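Researcher: Here's my situation. A collaborator sent me these components and asked whether they could plausibly form a single complex. I don't have experimental data yet, so a predicted model of the whole assembly would be a useful starting point for our discussion.
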Amino acid sequence: MSVENLPGDVHSALTSRRSIRRYLPTDVPQETLARILTGAGYAPSGHNSQPWKVYVLRGATKQRVTDGILKAVATEPEAAHQPEYDYYPTEWFDPYLTRRRRVGHSLYSLLGIERSDKAARDRQMAENFSFFGAPVGIFVTFDRRLATGTFMDIGMFLQSIFVGARGEGLDTCGQAVFTWYHKVIRDILPMQDEELLACGLSMGYADLAAPENQLFAEKLDLSEYCVFLD
Ligand SMILES: Cc1cc2nc3c(=O)[nH]c(=O)nc-3n(C[C@H](O)[C@H](O)[C@H](O)COP(=O)(O)O)c2cc1C
């Protein structure tokens, strides 16, 4: 490949990606969305199975999802809503427990929320369901009859959206929390029974002045997760 054909600064796109939890109301042009999602469609997948299916929500449909979930949160027992797969372990343990606590603590202290203030924490959690004010909400599903490895394909697809969005000056936040409310979402979107809701995400232009967006999650040093062997 000649130098002229080298893609743009992929390293910067990777390292500038972070989860943004407050957005400007500025809409995202349709062509930009289509370009990001077309790029994500180039993600690799086992046997080129391309198992992803994507729902892009704006306007009234996005609002119906927000309203439907907030109503379920307010009126139904928490236990009535469970995800279709375990993204998180039931028992956390170190070093993951410490990392999880640290990022949660950083977010809540930026927002001035005390650890003991469950009501305030619940309110912040509920911000997920209005996609943190983002103009675009996305759901990614796949056919549940496929195997566990499909989660790798979906992960690559998701990261391609996240990084592709950076290339357009946009930001994102992955949102597994939507998987708890797949039944509500299923009632609103034209999803087939065999589709499993893998993840939701918000996309838009970051409100860089918002306190929650001052969060830069700590990253491990390369030496902590990589061994070079000759
Ligand atoms: C698949 C996936 C699901 C996530 N779900 C949520 C979520 O439901 N709500 C949320 O606020 N953040 C969610 N996150 C964001 C993580 O908390 C975030 O990636 C992590 O704290 C590291 O921060 P960074 O993305 O800024 O590097 C999710 C991230 C991923 C990759």
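Model: Some features of this prediction you could bring to your collaborator: Strands lie at 53-57, 136-143, 171-175, 195-204. The mean pLDDT is 96.
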